[in-house]
Records
---
Amino acid sequence: MFKQLTLCFTLAAITAFSCLLITAPVQGQEQIQQIAPRKIPPARRSYMGREIAQTMHYTGAPWLIRENRENEERCSIMLGNLGVKTGMTICDMGCGNGFYSLQLGNMVGPDGTILAVDVQPQMLHLLRARMEKEAIENVTPILGSFHNPHLPKNSIDLILMVDVYHELSHPEVMLKYMRDSLKEDGQIVLLEYREEDPKVPIKPLHKMSKKQILKEYQSNGFKLTKEFDKLPWQHMMFFGKDPEWEEKASK
Ligand SMILES: C[S@@+](CC[C@H](N)C(=O)[O-])C[C@H]1O[C@@H](n2cnc3c(N)ncnc32)[C@H](O)[C@@H]1O
């Protein structure tokens, strides 16, 4: 009887403990995320007048590393204007198969870290295979959920989001978590295909206008700090935390 009771208590304790764990980093694997059960906000179909696009499926991953991406999007010019310094902690949010994560890994050097977040485990497997092939060790794949990127708080210098934001099913919740994860002077750098330009050969749902981006970011505690307008297809907009929004929110 006593043995049975002890076993019951042990199982209950393990279950309770595993439900409470927030993040358990495991060497050589995606970080295993176990979060306390809580209410998951419903996925949105639209946000502030914009229809939300569907998540790009992992079977489309080869398109992300196509040979002519540099020619079409001038990715190296974008990276050169990102303000990356060695030793930085950068999040590649919606990293896909890591087209940018690996390049950022090289740019920040051995003292820097790239947190590569995606919601599709298949994308992270493709990323890991590319990391192994190129012997990149400072990229940490993180399996996020649609409403929570599972990032550490107050610790990130820069969050890069390339062609991702328009597909977030929980934009305002994700922006809140990203805001919390940034250091005080941390920035989100947003790249979205230009809706204003009919010559950009991308489906309308996967494009965004500057006006819409500003509306959504300013409503969620960010202010525009810089823009780079010389990419052929995309807006590149830098956002920092807006302290006035914090003051208003605390009143
Ligand atoms: C069009 S791909 C862009 C990939 C990469 N940024 C690039 O430019 O090569 C969009 C990626 O965002 C991911 N994604 C969508 N919603 C997400 C979310 N809530 N959190 C993290 N990743 C998300 C998708 O799984 C997909 O891999």
Note: DSSP finds nine helices and twelve strands in the chain.
---
Amino acid sequence: MDHQAVRLAMFDLDWTLIRPQGSRIFPRNGSDWQWAFPNVVEKVRANAHKYQFVIITNQKSLKGESRMRQFRDKMDAVASALDVPLLVLVALESDRYRKPVPALWDEHLLKLFPKVERPASIYCGDAAGRTGDFSDTDYKFALNIGVPFRIPEQVFRDRKIVFHPPKIAFPARLRELVGTYDLEMSGWEMVLLVGMPASGKSTIARSLAAGRCLIDNPAGAVTVCSEELQTRIWCLQLVEGCLKQRESVIVDGTNVTIESRDPYIKLAKRYGCPTRALVVLTPDEVIRHNNIFREYMERKSTPEAAHRILRGKWQQPSPEEGLDVVQTVPYRVSPDAPPEYFYHYF
Ligand SMILES: [Mg+2]
């Protein structure tokens, strides 16, 4: 297929192109809509020769046949009123397709329009992180896909209206954190990793084991037991098996409470094995970024609520628990991190 260079005019839907009638915030049914600005149709049609129009909308609440049918009817009505070639992309879940995560762009739009002219395209949405906006997801989506951002007022009222971009909690220092972990196993020992999900624990575990031996091959010098992959009982059994053989072992789990660390420490004591807690110090905004990035890359992440619960339970490891060494480790970004890691503003 021969692809043409194309400019995209991409729009959010709710409160950008349309809004409920009257003063309602949420629509009552599929026919409860009106244009968000009186000149939407005129403006879109006047620019139809310059742009391919796209609507990108998050619609998590479209559960059930009837809501879905109402939404489809509404989009039919919007599309026929605009009467220009129109592509509508709808993210139905809280997953990697939901703005501001750019998977819809990377996996769909770039495939449909590989020759898109990014600087000449626009993305316009009302969730711009302004005072009073319910979120900044539209603004972040534009940053993530590398396309100029406009607020609806600039497009439909006056292009000279000034938009002051919000400060966003993107870990701007990510590039400064690139490096490798300078860690080694010291003789026979048990290392307990302590840290939040997505804080870099497994990378540290791998770096410590230095390829010597992972969980699939517990006969070598170092075994990594990941509580995130196994149950605690299984992990304890594996750890005990290693200690019996005087093998070193790394316990890769969150281990944020005294109670969760205790059975491992007791086990090590029983076999006379020295223990070391490695506390991973990863800034909160980096953890958040890693978590969403993991959803984007691997389709697995930990819900925000689980993070909050763990944070609330956090008990700093101390020698009083029976640990021989408590060591903190600053977070490092792997030199192999893909480029997207550094420029996506999730
Ligand atoms: Mg909106």
Note: Residues 175-343 form a domain with the Rossmann fold fold (CATH 3.40.50.300).
